[in-house]
Amino acid sequence: MAELGEELARIATSPITALPFSEIEALEKMIGAPLPEEFRSFLLDIGLGARPGPVLDLAWIVNETRREHQYFLEEPDMTVSPQQPFPITQTDVQGLPRLSAEGIESILWFDKPTPGTMLLCNHGCTWISMLALNGELAGTVWMTEMGWVEEMH
Question: Which InterPro entries does the annotation name (predicted)?
C-alpha cells in the first residue's frame, strides 16, 4: 500500500486525502457489513482516490445503498444482505476461459441484487461496479449489469 501511495503522490493532479476512521465505520454501519481489510486499508491510506485516476464517490455509494434498502422494503422477495456469502468462487472464475472458448458471453448479470456485496460506482445506465465483501473473493471488484434496476441515479 505504501508503494501505491508513493506512486499516486508522484502522478496525482489532486491531493490524496485519507478517509477518517469514523467515516469508514459509518460506511460499514450503513452498508450493514464490515469492509474487506484491503479496501479498508486503501480508504485509510489513499482515501477516495486521486486524479488522474478514478475517484470513488462516497455520496453516490451512500445514496444508492439507501435507495437499495428502500427497494428491499418495497420488494421483500428481492432482499439480499451484504453479510450473506458472495456467490462467486475461484472455481467459477477459473471456468471463464472455457466459457469464452465455447463462445459463451461471460457477462455477470443478475436478476436481483448480489449478496455479499456493496455498490462501488456507476458506469452509466445499469452498469455498476460492486465490491465483494466476503468469501474467497473478498475485496475483488466486479462489474455487472443490474437487470433488476429500471433507473440508476
Answer: Knr4/Smi1-like_sf (IPR037883)
CATH code, domain with 52: 3.40.1580
The tens digit of pLDDT for each residue in 36-68 reads 999 999 888 888 776 556 678 888 888 888 888
Q: What are the C-alpha distances in Å from 144 to residues 46, 86, 108, 109, 117?
A: 25, 14, 5, 6, 12
Structural domain including 69 reads: 2-146
Could you tell me if residue 118 is inside a domain? yes
Which amino acid, residue 42? Answer: F
Q: Is 113 exposed, middle or buried (0-12, 13-18, 19+ CB in 10 A)?
A: buried
Exposure string over 60-84, b if 16+ CB within 10 A, otherwise e: ebeebbeebeeeeeeeeeeebebeb
Q: Is 0.90 topped by the overall pTM?
A: no
Domain for residue 52, yes or no? yes
Tally of structural domains, the chain: 1
Q: Please count the CA atoms within 13 angstroms of the CA of 87 that sit on its side-chain side.
A: 9
Residue 93 in grid coordinates: 472464475
